Amino acid sequence: MCLRGSDATASLLRTSVLGSSLAADVVARRQILGPANLAEANGSISPFNGKKPRRSALDPMYRSILAVDIEGSTKRNNRVKEELRYELYRLVGEALCVTGIGTQHYHHPFTDRGDGFLILLRPVDEIPKRLLLSHLIPALAHLLAAHNGSIISPCDQPRILRLRAVIHAGEVLYDGKGFFGEDLDVAFRLLDAPRFKTELKKATVPLALVASDYIYQAVIRQGYEGIDDQQYLPLVTVNVGDQRRKGWVHLPPAGGISAVPPLPQAS
Predict the structure, then answer these.
(1) What's the alpha-carbon Rg for the chain, to the nearest Å?
(2) 98, 142, 216, 229: which could join 248 in a potential S-S bond, CB 3.0 to 4.6 Å?
(3) What is the CATH number of the domain that holds 212?
(4) Burial class for 20, CB neighbours closer than 10 Å (0-12, 13-18, 19+)
């Protein structure tokens, strides 16, 4: 609707008067309330006065840490990598099953790392850390040997699967995006240590394990059934932050599956 001249003039005058009055009111209220409180009173900012809210601290969770990595993955083409990844998941899953470890015992699915993955096991009485060393690792070594033994043709040699594994335990955190923490840093530094990679390259067995010094002191050297501490050598040392961390290397024999000791009976 168009306005006549006199109406338009009156409208402009009313807008000017109201605008001046509103501006004066805002100035007066700002002097009383202050800029932040004024904006908050008008609902124009969050209750945090423009500052990012402080995140609540995450609680650490104690977990047994197992991570595996395929040897020489970068030297394979994508089709072979796909096959190796499939076999890796299958064989580790079977080794967990043989050991009596189900999805209720760890965070499922595994945390994928491209040429390997991370398994975080919950601390439950029926799955002590000893079981990882006395049952899981031997079972995985035997399954790997059986898989590689089925590869006969020279052209299929790139499909031979050899793994590095690390076992550690400690506190981890989860922020909704992934797991992190110093104990994971320790585990992955040990897993990727050049000396550890060299030990597997020199070995004829398909699996090499490095155990953290914590695992060695708390479990391996304690004389538990199915664990021979003489087979673990302190060959790896890594820096994590400003601390030196030791790793104990073990090359589990790849004999028959019957070599895995029987599971302990529930009391």
Answers:
(1) 31
(2) 216
(3) 3.30.70.1230
(4) exposed
Burial class (CB in 10 A: 0-12, 13-18, 19+), 250: buried
Cα–Cα distance measured from residue 23 to residue 20, given in angstroms and rounded to the nearest whole number:
5
Q: Residue 68: is it exposed, middle or buried by C-beta count within 10 angstroms (0-12/13-18/19+)? A: buried
Sequence letter at residue 7: D
Nearest to 182 by CA among 212, 209, 208, 210: 212
pLDDT in tens, 72-91: 999 999 999 999 999 999 99
- Amino acid at position 109, single letter: P
98 neighbors 144 (Cβ within 8 angstroms): no
**Count of domains observed in the chain:** 2
pTM over 0.70: yes
Distance CA 139, CA 98 (A): 7
Same domain (yes/no): 162, 200: yes
The verdict on 23 and 80 lying in the same domain is: no
Same domain, 28 and 149: no
- pLDDT greater than 90 at residue 154: no
Query: Does 219 fall in a domain?
Result: yes
CA distances from 26 to 8, 18, 22, 36, 169 (A): 27, 12, 6, 13, 60
Per the CB < 8 A criterion, the answer to whether 152 and 160 are in contact is: no
Helices (H), the chain: 5-33, 35-41, 78-99, 129-131, 137-149, 182-191, 194-202, 213-218
Q: Burial level of 133, CB count in 10 A (0-12/13-18/19+)? A: buried
Q: Which domain holds residue 238?
A: 61-259
